[in-house]
Write a structure and sequence with these properties.
By secondary structure, this protein is of the alpha+beta class. 53% of the residues lie in helices and 12% in strands. The protein contains 6 helices and 6 strands. The protein has helices at 40-113, 117-125, 127-130, 142-145, 148-159, 191-209; strands at residues 19-21, 27-30, 135-140, 164-169, 178-181, 186-189. The strands form 2 sheets. The chain has a 4-stranded mixed β-sheet with strand order 4-3-5-6. Strand 5 and strand 6 (186-189) form a beta hairpin. It starts with 18 loop residues before the first strand and ends in a 23-residue tail after the last helix. Mean pLDDT is 79; it is low at 219-232.
């Protein structure tokens, strides 16, 4: 069984006669004839009009392409900036860790060169606290304790401490570490523990800082997200 398909309707245009005559034979309407010749001024005017129209179309196309390019750049920047913040933070952490390692190496070399310097500094810093103590007891590892008695007596005389000083050894202490007991209080120094505290404080500061150390765009200027979308 076949199905009849209705033919599409075609709009009919009324035929218009170009020339209309009255019954008397007189023409009442004449279709305008296309112009076949132009003057130089008319040609120049037409040329200028066509050139201006072409230029306007070209400028509009360029502006649209520029807007599209800016939108692509803005999208790329929005995608790249978070990654850039992570890279900057990683670089900051690496630089801080390198500086810390250099500082630890310098401190270790200084302690190897001047192992008794921290003991001298401790006595000088505690001069006021120890002046009334009748006796000082300094406990250190065997390597640091060797030859330390003379240094302690010299430093005590320099700070005006009149009491006695005793040096004891403790194998449980780490190298270059010591404890100074003056009865009413005590002071201690452990290079390894001090280095660990500095490291923990540094990493805690970096973790708190996170990815917000400084703006990735100096001056807080317009960011990529502020770029305008292309006009439709």
């Amino acid at each position: 069984m076949t199905q009849d398909v209705a033919a599409p309707k075609v709009a009919h245009e009324k035929f218009l006669f170009g020339t209309v005559f009255e019954p008397s034979g007189e023409m009442t309407n004449t279709a305008p004839r296309p112009k076949r010749s132009y003057s130089a001024e008319e040609v120049e005017a037409i040329r200028n009009a066509v050139a201006a129209d072409g230029e306007a179309r070209a400028l509009a196309s360029i502006a649209n392409r520029q807007a599209q390019a800016l939108a692509v750049i803005a999208a790329a920047c929005r995608e790249a900036l978070p990654r850039l913040a992570e890279v900057a933070h990683s670089h900051r952490v690496g630089s801080a860790e390198l500086a810390l390692a250099c500082a630890q190496a310098i401190a270790a070399a200084a302690l190897d060169k001047f192992p008794q310097a921290p003991v001298r500094a401790a006595l000088e810093a505690l001069a006021r606290e120890i002046e009334a103590a009748p006796r000082l007891i300094l406990t250190a590892d065997a390597e640091l304790a060797a030859g330390l008695q003379a240094v302690l007596e010299e430093t005590a005389q320099a700070v005006g401490y009149p009491g006695s000083i005793q040096v004891r050894t403790d194998p449980a202490l780490s190298p270059r570490a010591f404890t100074l007991d003056f009865g009413d209080g005590s002071a201690s120094f452990d290079p390894a523990a001090a280095a660990e505290r500095v490291s923990q404080a540094l990493h805690a500061a970096l973790a708190a800082e996170g990815l917000h150390a400084e703006p990735l765009i100096p001056g807080g200027g317009t960011s990529a997200t502020d770029a305008q979308e292309p006009e439709s």
